[in-house]
Amino acid sequence: MSVPTTEQAIGLARSGDGAASQAAPRSQGRARAAGAPIVNAMSVDVEDYFQVQAFAGTIDRARWAELPSRVERNTDAVMDLFDRAGVKATFFTLGWVAERHPALIRRIADAGHEVASHGWSHVRVDDQDAETFRADVRRTKRLLEDTSGRPVRGYRAASFSMGPRTPWAHQVLAEEGYAYSSSIYPVKHDIYGDPDAPRFAHRPRPDLPIVELPGTTTRLMGRSWPCGGGGWFRLLPYPLMRAAMRRVNRVDRQPCIFYFHPWEIDPGQPRQKGIGLRTRVRHYTNLEAMEGRLARVLRAFAWDRMDVAFAGEIGPAR
User: Which domains are delineated in the chain?
Assistant: First the structure.
């Protein structure tokens, strides 16, 4: 994971409250009216610690069912955090998790949060063909709807793995009844990212009734930098991340999309052996501080579910 230089970080922090933007054209997203409050979208990718992409070469999928699961207790802790802050969120949930923890899915829905799809078992979209992908998103949507008793409108790809290599993906999602995707991160990264993609909400194809809601970025030194949660939120100073998100709200007049995982508030999770330094830094840095940082960011901004924050783009929540 590349990070800004000290000089770049200082420049971003100083520009956080209204400096001239280097943002992409406003046509890439429906800018909110000046003075209107910005409601941002809070989201959680519901997967267990052993299901992350960084461990794909270390933990065999065949072993998943044998490993101690912590996803239910961690997701309950996340919901408690949201409840104390008065925040509703979208929970992009793996079908694999929902099948094994149906009561958790019902608790998420009954608490007023949005249940959305994260695919069945965290397989990258660009490692599938169109028909395999169709079967995956159909199966997951059906299970989540049957379990939660609510319609599933949103999808997020494992590791933001939709992009130029998956030109069929949005069509498949639209045909399977999804209203929106949040599966592209317009950044340059070694695991994910499409730096040429639009930064804000857009229709990837005008003939399809589906909206793409990309991961949130800010522009600095001619480049887009992630500022919507994830590992960056744990690795970089909190004031820097807060300044970047404020810049998106105040300069671009766009909502931020924040995401994290339940395992990120769990410093007691089993530590994996045989992983490289980069993976170790990305996965384990500041786990013990994450819950406190989340409490701060929940107080600093207005938050709601994805389908509420972007109701103007995808239609009203149901």
Answer: 37-314 (3.20.20.370)
Looking at residues 265-271, what average pLDDT do you find?
97
Q: How far apart are CA 192 and CA 256, in angstroms?
A: 19
Position 31 scores a pLDDT of 75
The span from the CA of 3 to the CA of 149, in Å, is: 42
- Tokens 């317009």 -> residue: 186
Residue 84 exposure: Cα atoms within 13 Å on the Cβ side: 12
Q: Is residue 127 scored above 60 in pLDDT? A: yes
The strand pairing partners of 92, in sequence order, are 45, 116
Q: In this structure, are residues 108 and 91 in contact, taking their beta carbons and an 8 Å threshold?
A: yes
Q: How many Å apart are CA 79 and CA 138, to the nearest integer?
A: 27
Task: Match 């956080």 to its residue by tokens.
Answer: 16
Cα separation, 290 vs 296, whole angstroms = 10
Q: Are strands 223-226 and 217-220 parallel, antiparallel or unpaired?
A: antiparallel
Q: For residue 4, which of 177, 219, 183 has the smallest C-alpha distance?
A: 219
**Using CA atoms, how far apart are residues 148 and 46, in angstroms rounded to an integer?**
15
- pLDDT for the residue 191: 67
Structure tokens at 2: 């590349």
CA dist 142 and 220 (Å) reads 41
Q: Kindly write down the DSSP assignment for every residue of 4-28, as one continuous string.
A: --HHHHHHHHHHTTTPPP-PPPGGG
Task: Give φ, ψ of 295 to 5 degrees.
Answer: -60, -40
